[in-house]
Design brief:
The protein has helices spanning about 60-70, 110-115, 120-130, 135-145, and strands spanning about 20-25, 35-40, 45, 50, 75-85, 90-105, 115-120, 165-170, 175-180. With about 180 residues, it is of the alpha+beta class. Strands 1, 2, 3, 4, 5, 6, 7, 8 and 9 form a 9-stranded mixed β-sheet that branches. It contains 4 helices and 9 strands. The chain has one domain (about 20-145): Nucleoside Triphosphate Pyrophosphohydrolase, CATH 3.90.79.10. One of its GO terms (biological process) is diphosphoinositol polyphosphate metabolic process. Its cofactor is Mg(2+); Mn(2+). Its main location: cytoplasm. Its EC number is 3.6.1.52.
Length: about 180
Amino acid sequence: MMKFKPNQTRTYDREGFKKRAACLCFRSEREDEVLLVSSSRYPDQWIVPGGGMEPEEEPGGAAVREVYEEAGVKGKLGRLLGIFENQDRKHRTYVYVLTVTEILEDWEDSVNIGRKREWFKVEDAIKVLQCHKPVHAEYLEKLKLGCSPTNGNSVVPSLPDSNSLYVTSGQTSGLPSTVR
């Protein structure tokens, strides 16, 4: 079943990339178990919950709204992990860390489109995502490469669009490149 949002307005940055926001939803602050949801387009595949930003919406607010709609969870919004670029689909996604504090039994996408959710160990989630959502797998790879809550990188400054940090889908070092 296809997800349909009649009043959805897509927002784009100055370079024509669709602005998106997502959260890596963790069961605890240990960040060892992440929540994935079934894809609305391919229900047998898992994805990181996220979606398009609405006009005038801040990235953090959009990320929290998307995980509430898609995964039926609320929590404590943590650091911005990075802004990930998908060249193929022309998306730039602000990815945050969220520690889940509340899990709804029924939520918008479970009722409307039968979306499922499941907890995965981080290593397993990377394997599950790599084949069909490699950019989503990169979110978790970057998390493992040094953005753990104990290494002092707990706050990433919010920068204007023109000098934001981006991770492109071809990078393997895990370090963001600056796009101007």
